[in-house]
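User: Assemble these into one structure.

Assistant: Restating your components, then the assembled model:
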Amino acid sequence: MYAFDYQRPAALSEAASLLGADPEAKILAGGQTLLPTLKQRLAQPTMLVDLGRLPGLSAIEKTAEGVAIGALVKHVAVATSDVVRQVIPALADLAGMIGDPAVRNRGTIGGSLANDDPTADYPAAVLALNATVVTDRRSIAAGDYFQGLFTTALEEGEIIVRVDFPQVERAGYAKFPNPASRYAMAGVFVAKTAAEVRVAVTGAGQSGVFLWEEAGDVLSSDFAPAAIASLQLDPADLMSDLHGNAEYRAQLVKAMAKRAVAQALA
Amino acid sequence: MNESIVTPIGAAVRRKEDQRFITGKGRYTDDMNRPGQAFAYFLRSPHAHAHIRAIDASAARAMPGVVAILTGADLAQDKIGDLICGWMITSKDGTPMRMGSHPALAKDKVRYVGDHVAVVIADTLDAAKDAAAAIAVDYEVLPAVADLGTADAGAQIHDCAPRNVAFEWELGDRATTDAAFAQAAHVTKIDIVNNRLAPNAMEPRAAIGEYDPGDEAFTLWTTSQNPHVARLVLSAFVGIAPEHKLRVIAPDVGGGFGSKIFIYAEETVCAWASKRVGRPVKWTADRSEAFLSDAHGRDHVSHAELATDAAGKILGLKVHTRANLGAYMSTFSSCVPTYLYATLLSGQYAIPAIHCEVDAIYTTTAPVDAYRGAGRPEATFLVERIVDKAARELGLDPAEFRRRNFITTFPHQTPVIMNYDAGDYAASLDLALEMADYKGFPARRAEAEARGKLRGIGLSNYIEACGIAPSAAVGSLGAGVGLWESAEVRVNPTGNVEVLTGSHSHGQGHETTFAQLVSARLGIPIDQVSVVHGDTDKVQFGMGTYGSRSGAVGMSAIVKALDKVEAKAKKIAAHILEAAEGDIEFKDGKFTVAGTDRALAFAEVALNAYVAHKFPTSEIEPGLKEGAFYDPTNFTFPAGCHICEVEVDPETGVTQIVNFTAVDDFGIVINPMIVEGQVHGGIAQGVGQALLEGVTYDADGQLVTGSYMDYTMPRADDLPSFRLGLTQTRCPSNPLGIKGCGEAGAIGAPPAVINALADALGTQDVPMPATPAKVWALAKTRAVRQAAE
Amino acid sequence: MPETPDTAMAKISISMAVNGKPVSTTLDPRTLLVQFLREKLLLTGTHVGCDTSQCGACVVLVDGAAVKSCTMLAVQADGTSVTTIEGVAGPAGLHPMQEAFREHHGLQCGFCTPGMIMSALDMVARLGPALDAATIRENLEGNLCRCTGYHNIVKAIAAGAEAMGAGAKAAAE
């Protein structure tokens, strides 16, 4: 690691002013992505602003619309939360599939969303559930939030405060992990409301998480795994690498979509 | 546990060494720190192949904390020699292998990504890394030679090796093999890629070099499987210091699997540089460096043909293999694709004629050397794949075809040097078939099919040559060293015992099994025995641990030393008991005058040996300490049958191993718990090779699989629990009847897994690693094929 | 592991309890928890086997939960209670999970073992003492072993968990 200064603000406003004063400062939440990056000397921030002890960002609360999850809530807390399990069980399932137990004990939902790794799990849930990312400045709809690989609508120094997930009729998540890294090679979150079905795909797209609208359309009229069977996802926009080409990823997306629907129906 | 009990051979004694490992008190190299130590960081080549025009380290040298920056020019100035390959192979045209110069720090050229350009030594590792980034290297980039198949036509890597060929070698008789093929009713052909693997001992390599100017002597702590060989090479060839001025200590070592046999650039530089900078120099690899620079394993491309007669008997085998050596010839790299490979091509089968050609090729990739099994997994994979394919082509059950061709009488001379001393291959096949419920497989396949899954079953009847090896024999084949082992048994006056061994334990449990042997033999509790290894100042010499040799060779040396201890103790006992030496019997820890109740406990004789009051020291020297060197009379030949049953999900290509049965004949087993553990670990590595692992370089010679993010290590949920069975034929070639067990799993498993997949997928073209993506494509092809039928 | 240098950056003062003992120090903020444990406290039982947070040789408990100490700054552990492998055995002897690893030959070279034992303790804390093989394998996703093929680690954790459960039950009665 390169050297850096370290600050642990006690209030959100203090964090914001630290970040505002130093454009080379970075936010440290759970550190499960940032610290490996720093260890490889792939980034050289002047300062880490550790949000870890900020009050008010670690709560899971049932709301009128669904559930609000504070930015610093750890994956393990979502996975084991009675509230999440009751309101959106698929979200708890998803959190329990992130990384491994030790990573889940440190990694946070805010950190995952701010980083926006194209193979991370949370973006699929946020996009499929049409959640709202609430920051210290504004609320950002999921559809506006994700803008490509490691790219979000967040501005310099903007801090995620919580994520508001609306309750849906049914939801399911299925993930095919990369055999080596165990990140998603194809992670599909399916969410059904009275109005529509949204199918969000992570791990497979060249530009990060995306909505598979065709699948959403057919599932709107027939919410069953078999409804997807005849669909073909165009491999042109999917990733190819050592672990599988785009054609294989297209197949995995389809297979995981079927399983996610089955989960939602279970 | 360290129980105060006498531990018989064959008992599952719990391990003595575990106490320190389960409490965090292990002592690995990186756990050590020397006063005043500085830290080494290696500037590595980012290019696969390049001339170094110039290195400018002036700015880097001025940076804070930098102690020294050293390059190949400094090595040359100090007349430090090249790293060597210790086994001379002669090509079929009679010319010696072409060994390219391998300096510990590059001189004019770099030959793989990760090659050592310079070392920065600094007060801290971060300071060393900062300075390394400030070194300016002017490279003239040359074309990479990353592909084994086309390396002959690529840019020449070493001046001495045109076409990038290190040697073109053959074994067996071409004419008799051709004649056998002329008689064949059927010829089975197969093309095989044996994928390249990264060894991945969990402890990364590390070294601390320290120079004592008062004694003009060096100490090197290093992660080695064979510290004495390291010292010999560093003294006699590299020229760090004479042997008596170089102490090499390999403390607790966190796994090796072959990768820590070799003498690498990093420990060489740490030792040498410690004198130059006047401070201890410490280096610890991070995992990324390990992927770049630990010697890889396997990496063969082969074509083979098997001739059979009308009755389904094998007539002959022809093999042509291209073996990737990487950029340099590592310490034992030349013997792996030759004498550890082609000599096992007869498998468990009576094959009258075998001819094998091996072309060893340089590429601009990390060096390739021995990895668990070393040559024998490559041979077994080839034999067991082609035998399986032949059975299917002949319409025979794979088990029946194998049985029809088993060697059944011993000793058996193969056409490829080896003389198998003992075995019962049908016995292990029968037990494995029964344990795996081979008969019940069709029903299980039908049940899986009803669930939309493809089920397959595969056999592998492996043989390996272990107990490496008779010194004169390997010498005649080109080895630069003898492969005996040493032992010293030191009985203390109070009757407890230290055993000094040249074997090195890095997970194998020698501290337990060796002590168990001594306990059983001397009739003293196992907690009265300690095992000393891994330090050239304590153990005089030894050849180390690899090739499943510590039991068959290392323990045989201990037996020989124990024989001498017993003989001398009997002389002493005879004097004390006032009996003839020939009348003294030693049993259950007691020396008894035959036919009487006059007896002395072992400890009483030990004390008397040192007190020396009761025997004439003009006839018998005081003390009770004996050493022995044991040179094996033959290789040993562990063999067995592994059966793998898989279930493939055609929707995702995921292969699940639903049953893995391994039946092995290791001869006499000292500690079955430890033997089973060795088999488990070997199978995991074999399954890893078959389904998960593969080192990949791109066309520019960049390592694609440079971390656990891309290189698929077997994890707990990738593997099943294993069913193990043992059959036993005593090895007649050593006093304990031991064959060795360390590599069997890694050798037997890959063909069992791939044969099972071939069965499930209905094709013989199943590549390793059979990743979900590849299996999915094969399953899709199968579905198309079936639809067409 | 890297020795952490003095730098121009401001040092930070932290305190924590390590294996029940209070520890205070001043260090460079970039010091990882594992570096602090190994290099400053000389608790070398916690190991480093990779640089991508995958192998789990560095797992310790922070406030009772398993974390990868190579992926946590020492300053992030300020004010916490850290347990390393050196703190697992009690005054009366080995912890039942340690005993189980020995009894079931759940280790060979020993390098991954401290991380395995710490992860096993976390597993029992989260999931209770009755652990089946599939659950154990799934929960070992973040711990690599190259020696054992996991077969005996799985057995050891199941047995260790059961012994912990029996111990807790006996203590409650």
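Chain B touches chain C through 63 residues (CB under 8 Å).
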